[in-house]
Amino acid sequence: MLAVSTLGTFDGVHRRNLSKVLSLVHYDGPLSRAQVTAATGLNRSTVATLVSELAALDLVVESAPDPTNRVGRPSPVVAPHPLTAVIAVNPEVDAITIAAVGLGGRVLHSERIEVDHIVSPEEAVEIVARTVAGWASTGELAVLRFIACGVAVPGQVRRADGLVRWAPHLGWSDAGIRDLLETSIGLPTVVDNDASLGAVAEHLFGAARGVDDIVYLNGGASGIGGGLIVHGRLVGGSAGYAGEFGQNRPGIATTDDRRAPDGVLEDEVSRARLLEVVGLDTADEPTLAAALMQSTDDAVQRELERQRRILATALCNAINVLNPSLVILGGFLATVAQSDLAALEAAVLAQALPVAGEELEIRVAGLGEDRLLIGAAEAAFTAVLADPESSAPATFR
Question: Is 299 exposed, middle or buried (0-12, 13-18, 19+ CB in 10 A)?
Fold first, then answer.
C-alpha cells in the first residue's frame, strides 16, 4: 500500500513538473535551460530530464546556445516545438475562420472562408473537416502534428460539455458542435464563447499581458460579447455564460442617437451599421477598419461618433460595477475606439465614478484579428499543458 501511494505521489509531482516547464516555454519561451531552472526552482539535472522528456513528446525543441554569449557556462535554448499545433475555429454569420496555431500562441496559417448563408452546425463541421483535410497535402502544413481543436463560438456555451446553448445570430440552439467535430476530425475538441476566449488570449499574449483585472469587449459580425478577467482568472459564471455585454440595454442620452427602438447595445453599436455607412456588403476586420479610417465622408464620421458615445456609456457601467484597471476592445469596437481614443476615454471618465476611473486605461486588442483564434487554441492546449504526456498525434478521418 505504501509503495502505491509513493508511486502515485511521484507520478503527480513528475506530471506537475512537466506541466510547469512546458507552460513556461509556452508562455515565455524560447528560454535557455538556465532560465527555465531559475524560473521553476528545480535543479539543473531535473530540468534537463524534463526537457528531454518534453522533446521526446515533440512538445519542445532544444538548440545550441547563442555563441555570442560568452559569460558563464553555455546553456541550450528550449523553445516550443515548431510542428506541434492545434486547430482553431471561429464560425460567424458571414464566414468561418480556421487556423493552425502552434505552441506559444503562434498563428501558423489562417483561412477565412466566406459563406453566403448562415451555416448549420453540421455545415460548419463539414467546412472545417474539408479545409483541414486539404492541409495534409499543402506544403508546410502537411508536416504539422495536430493534437486538439478549439472553437470560439459567438454565443452562450455550456463550459461543462461544450454545448452551444444559444447562438442567436447563427441560429444555433443546443448544438453539440464539440461532439460533431470530434467525430469528424478525430481530435479532442474544446468549445467556448468567443469573447471569453478573446479575453484569455489578450491576457496571456496580447495587450493585457501582466494585467489581472480586465474587461474585454469583442465586436464581431454576430454582435458584441465580453470576457472578464478578475484577479488573473477568467470569470465564467455558474455555467459559463457570463460577459454578455451586447445584450445589455444601453443608456442613450439623446433620442437622435437611437437607431433601434428598445434595442440592446449590439443593435446600436453595430458592425452592420458600419458596413452600411461605408457601402460594403461584407468585409474582414482589416478591410472594414481601413475603409472607415480612410473615409472622408461626414456620414461615416457621424456614425463613428454616435457609436462612440453609446459605447462610452456601456463601458462606464461595466467600470462602475467591476472596477477593472484595463478595458480592452477588439474587432470593430477597436476601430470605433481608434477613430478618437481620447474622446472615448474622456466620455467614459466623465460618466464613471471618479475613484473607479482613477487608474483606468482603455486599449485596443493587441492580437488583432488573431485574438479569437489564439484564444480558441489556448483552450485546446489546456489539457496538454496540464498533462504533457497526454499529447498524441491524430490521423484525420
Answer: exposed
